[in-house]
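Blackboard transcription, Thursday session:
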Amino acid sequence: MVLKMTHFVIFITLTVSVSCRQSPEKLVGITGNQIPITDSLHGMDSILTYVASYGKHIDEVLDEQLAYAPVKITKEDGSYNSSEGNLMADIVMERANPVFESRTGKKIDFVLINFGGLRSSISKGPVSARTAYEVMPFENHIMVVELSGKSVGKLIDFLVASHTAHPISGLHIVLDKNDRLRSVDIQGKPFDKNRHYFVATSNYLLGGGDHMDFFKEAIQVTDIDYLIRKAMIDYFTKNDTITAAVDDRFIKVK
Amino acid sequence: MDRRKFITNTAATSALIGLGGLSLSSCLGKSKKHLTILHTNDVHSHIDPFPKDHAQYPNLGGIARRASLVEQIRKENPNTLLFDAGDIFQGTPYFNFYGGELEFKLMSMLRYDAATIGNHDFDNGLDGLYAQLPNAKFDFISANYDFTNTLMDGHVKPYRVFTVDGIKIGVFGLGVALEGLVMKKLYRETKYLNPIEVAQTMSHTLKIEEKCDLVVCLSHIGYSYGDDQRPSDLKLAAQTEYIDLIIGGHTHTFLDKPTIAVNRKGQNMLINQVGCYGINLGRIDFYFDVQNSSSAEGVSIVV
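(Written on the board underneath:)
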């Protein structure tokens, strides 16, 4: 009797597994939705508490006052150069040159970054690391590019044609009243198309950003592993007062 | 008769019959099966909701709210999977300060099942990604990044098969071309393979060899690029078969509703992408029945 029962059980189990194989689940319907994450959902308390412990430290670091800006610094206050553009390009020159010099024994001749990369003005008042994140949210870092005089000529032609106050430092460009190039000085000396120049820029522009194609003609590139934002924070840490003004580095004579 | 032996035998027999009876009834398809797949893409370290005065996304997003929503859906249907289609990293100071630690820890708290690797997930280099792996209690899957000669070797699977309520779900990952998008020194010896060719092999492996009921692709190749020759989710759908769902990313595409696409065999399938920054959660529900039930042929898709 016991033996028979065992057989019966095996028989049923077999039948079940065989019938299952003959009729597997089949997909019959699909529905698709998108659910917006709004304030109608109450944030999970355990997650909020966990995040807050990280956020508190970030806020402390970001909002600690590093310097003071007596007047607003903006990229919108000049046609060919701006207070914020000048500040940024000068910061890159001041912070990057010692690093480049210590690595290569050479000096940066001038700086060119892009107008579009400055994402916020600097308000009058306290300046903090958060200021640097607002102006430069991207992870752009400083690259030093060796360009031939011919390529630098293209760079200058690009600036003359752009009608945009791209941030520059170390360059002095004068246009005549018809927007034609009148003179170019680099580090106080007339531009010499027969020599090479070391130009500090961002990895974004070197990679083809803003169609600054002359950077594709780079003879040599040195990555100095220095974020532009980090250079700003270092500058703000070193200087109590942050000032900048429109000047004559790129002008048009009347 | 030995009384003790009799009781043991009887108990064993009834247990077996009980088991047989149970599988028999489920086999007859009295109860349909229901699988829910939830997904995000391009969250870019957006952990907090956007500020109330934000120009584009006021008061939207936030991972704590997403956690509540996911928990609510899991209560409704425990047979739920949660995926991310890449670019977890980069976008807020949380990433700059902690290198992705918090992102991975929170995704683990939300019980993500898998994620694929986006271009920005290389932003701190292979070392930076590798260093954060211990914080991720979910799998990284990518079938077209070959990490063989890098320190990520062995830490990324081409695909994973999940079994949920007896349903086999095969999930593979795809990443975007790195050259020109990510600096070489960040991805180093990572090799990018043609995503569409890889997907053709993967979908066959999952459907035919692994006998999966569903095939899902976590794609960070981008939804569409107009007339461009670049691979995209729309091209991927048209040039493959067996894939039921592509969960997309990279192009930050907001769709009014999931796209119903046609594969190379003329069968319908779904592509979904939910924009970016964690301001939406994608939800796809799959309903199963037994083959010989009275339900009509084909799959009804309602979006």
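Lecturer's comment: Chain B touches chain A through 75 residues (CB under 8 Å).
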